[in-house]
Amino acid sequence: MSGLRLVVFVCIMLWSCTVEVGRVQSRSSGSAALSRDEQRVYAVDADNGTLRVFDRQSLAEVATVKVGVQPSRVTVGPDDTLYVSNRGSHSVSVVHHDTWEVAATLETGVEPMGSVVSADGKTLYVVSSTSRTAPDYGTLTAYDLETRLPLWELPVGQEPRDVALVDDHRALLTLFREGKTVLVDLTTRSVVGGSDLVDSSFFNATTAHARGLSTLAVTDLGVYAFGQAAQLEQVETLDAGENRVGYSAGIVHDSIFCADPETPESLFAMPQLQPSALSGSSAAVVMPDSTRAKEQTAVTVNRQASRLTLVPLASAALALQPRGGWVNQVTIDPGTDGLAVTSDLGNLFTYSQFTHRLTRVGFQFRFDLPSWSIDGQSDPAPEVVDAEVALGRALFDDANNFSLSRNALACSSCHLEGREDGHTWRLPQGIRQTPSLAGRRLAETAPYHWQGELPTLPAFYDHTVKTLMGGNGLDERQTQALSRYLESLPLPENPRRGAPMTAQEKVGQATFVKAGCDACHRGAALADVSEADVGTGGSYNVPSLLGLGRSAPYLHDGTAPTLEARFQTASGDRHGNVSQLTADELSSLIAYLKTL
User: 50-55 and 40-45: which strand pairing?
Assistant: First the structure.
């Protein structure tokens, strides 16, 4: 990742969205933020579990606050109180800026991510990837900041990732994998709308569909969502007469979509200098002037390709283009997932989870053209990750390493965060859905691929890198590091896994055996080395069931959007002996599967 090239690129093509007066514009996001007087910079370090406080001018570390497990995002309230979303410990740490101590810890749903404070400073809104009780929907929770107690909680769809206030009465959320937004009425506490972000003008031929939506930007020109666009094609399914969506492998572009509820259709899914990948661990946004850096335009930083983008993203790029003309490129650290920009655009600050340091980039105009350059970096935080695992992580998120790809793709382009992307892809073998890699005990589940034609992990890497990603191939050290990293990834959090089983789940566990599911899904990995024909058009490798509750869609071609849908279309007794089960037993089986 040390050879990442960052190109700077801004596009002020934002005329389609309406302007709503009174919106609070975003100036920071992700793992970094600025104090209200902009004299201190905050950054959370996921590996170390800390909130780091830096002086803006000297970049000296003023304080280090121990927060929760895997802190991912930091939000600054109107009174400079800090709210740190702890993804790994299901909490938000409330940190006072005068004492640098955790004053309170708010319990959240599973994997809390985006948060925002109301303009009056009285309410904190937090999105969590799943609820406290079920793995198949996420939540928006409102907290009273005086009592620090939850006011209400609302189911909002699968895997919500960010939240922004459109006005005093409405919030907009992104659904990470589905490429959708959700509009919530905060007064009635209900979902009142949203959009499936699609741009039909992509390449003037096909359609671009959003995926990996991790960031929302509130600007004076509208509300924007950042993610990937994937080329869309209609492909015939095995079901008679129906079409469904498949994506052409390798056609992936970072994009910005208009998510403004007043103009719900996407503004554009703009292809960049080259196809690129998005890890999904990104930041949100600020807006600069088309002439003198006073007005603002959207900004995002993405961890996987270490880039800043003022409006659309570019592969490993820090980009600025004020109504035409390319400008200088600036290399920042790989693993960057935090961004904060001063109100005058004099400085922007980025934080890297790989190098554990803050970078300050200076901005100025020369001959009416923008110019950026790095003018300081902080001391790094301690490295606590095993060196080989850290190398594997860097490889997995690297879109600019020719060993992996010459098409600006990373492993995380499809396996977002080491998991799956919720999409199906059109490959030479047919339509295939992306399986999750995280926590699946890969070393124990050979052979690999849906056809099971690859006997070992090195063979799997070699085939994927050279055939699907266009890379040169990995050496032995890289192969070992990548395997170590994948082995280190835990299963996605599940509120039902490890919890005392309900009566229904116990019935489902017994039904799992009664239906013969354990004949193929067995052992610690709940997988098998054989292939099976379950009535979907051929024999396929038996996948692990670990993490099943958060890995939709299902089957090799993704034709079952939910577990319920899979059993509704089961072909007789070819996928478990389900014909003998009562409706209650089938419901219990599904409940049990969601605990795995």
Answer: antiparallel
- Locate tokens 């292809």: which residue? 271
pLDDT of residue 274: 30
How far apart, in whole angstroms, are the C-alpha atoms of residue 467 and residue 483?
A: 19
- Residue 128 CB: number of other CB atoms within 10 A? 28
**418 in the Ramachandran plot: left (φ > 0), alpha (ψ -120 to 50) or beta?**
left
**Any idea how long the chain is?**
596
- pLDDT tier for residue 200 given thresholds of 50, 70 and 90: low
Q: Looking up tokens 């050290």, which residue turns up?
A: 477
Using CA atoms, how far apart are residues 381 and 15, in angstroms rounded to an integer? Answer: 42
Q: List the alpha helices (DSSP H) in 397-502.
A: 457-463, 476-488
Alpha-carbon distance of 458 to 193, in angstroms, equals 46
Kindly report the backbone phi and psi dihedral angles of residue 583, in degrees, each rounded to the nearest multiple of 5, phi listed first. Answer: -60, -40
275 and 282 in contact (C-beta within 8 Å)? no
Q: Does residue 553 have a cis peptide bond before it, meaning omega lies within 30 degrees of 0?
A: yes
Place of tokens 């930041």: 283
CA–CA distance, 74 with 32 (Å, rounded to integer): 6
Helical H segments across 491-574, by residue range: 503-514, 563-568
The pLDDT score that the predictor gives to residue 388 is 97
First to last CA, the chain: 35
| Cβ proximity of 363 and 286 under 8 Å | no
Residues of 427-456 as b/e, b for ≥16 C-beta within 10 angstroms?
A: beebbbbbbbbbbbebeebbbbbbbbebee
Rounded to two decimals, what is the model's pTM? 0.88
Q: Cα(89)–Cα(100) distance, rounded to whole angstroms?
A: 20
Helix (H) or strand (E) holding 420: none
Give dist(CA 12, CA 226) in Å, integer.
15
536 close to 557: Cβ distance less than 8 angstroms: yes
Residue 339's nearest CA partner among 313, 306, 301, 369 is: 301
Task: For residues 345 and 360, give the distance between their C-alpha atoms in angstroms, rounded to a whole number.
Answer: 12
Residue 275 pLDDT greater than 50, yes or no = no
How far is the C-alpha of 361 from the C-alpha of 48, rounded, in Å? 24
Q: What is the DSSP string of 213-261?
A: EEEEEEETTEEEEEEEEEEEEEEE-SSTT-EEEEEEEEEEEEEEEE--T
Helix-helix angle 476-488:387-396, to 10 degrees: 90
Tokens 């924007």 label which residue? 224
pLDDT, greater one: 235 or 106: 106
- Dig out the tokens for 467 from the structure: 């055939």
Strand 180-185, strand 170-175: pairing: antiparallel
CA distance 408 to 428: 20
pLDDT in tens, 360-380: 988 766 666 666 788 999 999
Tokens of 211: 């995926």
- How far apart are the C-alpha atoms of 476 and 456, rounded to whole Å? 13
Helix axes 583-593, 503-514, angle to 10 degrees: 100
Cβ neighbours of residue 128 closer than 8 Å, sequence gap 6 or more = 90, 108, 109, 110, 111, 112, 113, 138, 139, 141, 160
pLDDT per position as a tens digit, 468-477: 888 999 999 9
Q: Identify whether the C-beta of residue 357 lies closer than 8 Å to the C-beta of residue 378.
A: yes
CB 99 within 8 A of CB 71: no
